[in-house]
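Need residues for this backbone.
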């Protein structure tokens, strides 16, 4: 039922929002140039790797050594508005339609985080990652990594169709209010470096 719902909603959302998507494409091309899409490998269901797509919100500015600058140095005012409105996530509907993601689930994080998870935290990989999730409506980037993972695991253990509907409805409210977009002092959120109190409980 969840997968059928994902396909149905993603398809009609892509069709109905196509004018909005076209406008964002033009704006990104005008403000940031090519490429329009941000692509990155992320772990999905059972930690299988897929390519997530979003609208690009940062400039590819590098230092003298050829390394990308920090997020806050590459994120433009246009990019901030794009992220705060969550319009950068619209291409993710294609990931949902394909089956890489779900509308609701733990957010797909970086591949490099996989070996840093504790056994309990790794349970977040037992479901498809989502465009939105329980952690997103309960703090998003304004809460700690540990709190975020606890909320993700709670969702994995308590997921239901009615809970997904509740999360989707509350997500609309969060987007309109633009709450929890970034943690204090960060463009988005600081990188996860492992849970220090439980490093011995990491999974391979």
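Answer:
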């Amino acid at each position: 039922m969840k997968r059928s719902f994902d396909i149905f909603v993603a398809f009609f959302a892509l069709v109905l929002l196509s004018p909005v998507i076209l406008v964002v494409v033009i704006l990104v091309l005008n403000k940031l140039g090519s490429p329009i899409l941000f692509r990155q490998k992320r772990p999905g269901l059972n930690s299988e790797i897929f390519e997530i797509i979003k609208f690009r919100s940062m400039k590819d500015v590098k230092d003298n050594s050829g390394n990308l600058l920090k997020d806050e140095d590459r994120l433009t005012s246009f990019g901030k508005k794009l992220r705060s409105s969550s319009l950068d996530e619209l291409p993710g509907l294609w990931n949902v339609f394909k089956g890489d993601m779900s509308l609701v689930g733990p957010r797909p994080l970086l591949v490099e985080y996989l070996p840093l998870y504790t056994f309990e935290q790794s349970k977040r990989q037992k479901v498809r990652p989502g465009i939105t999730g329980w952690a997103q409506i309960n703090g998003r980037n304004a809460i700690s990594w540990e709190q975020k993972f606890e909320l993700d695991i709670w969702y994995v253990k308590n997921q239901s169709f009615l809970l997904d509907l509740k999360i989707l409805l509350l997500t609309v409210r969060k987007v309109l209010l633009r709450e929890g977009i970034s943690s204090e002092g960060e463009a988005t959120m600081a990188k996860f470096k492992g849970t220090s109190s439980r490093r011995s409980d990491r999974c391979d």
